[in-house]
Structure prediction request, 327 residues.
Amino acid sequence: MKYTERASELAAREIESRRTAALEEQRLRELEVSENMPEVSRLRTQLRDNYIKIIKLVASHDSHAAETAAKIREDSLSKSESIAIMLEKEKGDPKYLEPKFTCPKCSDTGYVDGIRCECLEQLLMKYSLEEMSSGSAIRLHDFNEFRADFYPPGEIRERMVKNWTMFMNYCQEFGGTSTKRSMLFMGETGLGKTFFSSCIVKRLGDMGISAAFMSAFDMLRTLEGEHFGRVEGDTMEHLLTAPLLVIDDLGAEPSGSKYYNTFLYNIINGRSNRMLPTIASTNLTPDKIKSRYGNRIASRMLSEFLPVLFRGNDIRQKKSAQRIYNA
Prediction:
């Protein structure tokens, strides 16, 4: 997968920062042990001396070098075990003096045997998705901002409170191994579809899970530009592989491009085949989805996505009226 120069730079900088921090913390632990555990320091000095002895033996070509080296290694093993026992007793960790890397696989270098480590790939994905979504005018919100009193009392308010709870549980369970369900937010303008979409993206981001969040118009226009070479990028691949894709305001994009439906189907179908979840919000009814996008897309969305209905009165108007009243 191709990544932008900015995403690559940010990922490399974070990897370097992680390694630097881990080594600095190790240095401070070593300093602490040298001051407070003299016996451990003495044994570690002897271990270094044994290492030097081994090197000298290899260079000496002594006929008894192998036998002597075996004894030195046995002595080093004994001393290492003694150090581990003392550290376990005093610090609760026999490996207290080893660096605590964020990623033990690559020791925070970003590579394993010359191949990009999974941790680096995750950072590249994270910064690529952030860069891709940065042009969006959609502001992220927190679940704590939800106002049930903006919805009519009774069944509608109860339904929206249930949705609120369901979305928070959706995020909480997202890091598990179970398959994540795609969802289709349906309802009139101003009922909280974009708000809750942004809450989900923010909560997952706080959990360290990256999501692509774009309006349908921005997403399809970007894909069209890359398809015809007007702009550079690998947006389609990022959309297909993001842990979560959120498409906002589906149906508000212009319907003139014959490529838009193809792009949309490839995204929905590709993510479905990869068993990756997608959340789409729309003002369209199921019949209008079929009419606008055709049976292939409508069938996927209406059968595989969990429909979540938004009901009530336009919250934006209520908020606006409240601001005027409080002014």
About this structure: The beta strands are 111-112, 115-116, 183-187, 211-215, 244-250, 278-282, 306-310. The longest strand covers residues 244-250. The chain has two domains: 5-115, 135-326.
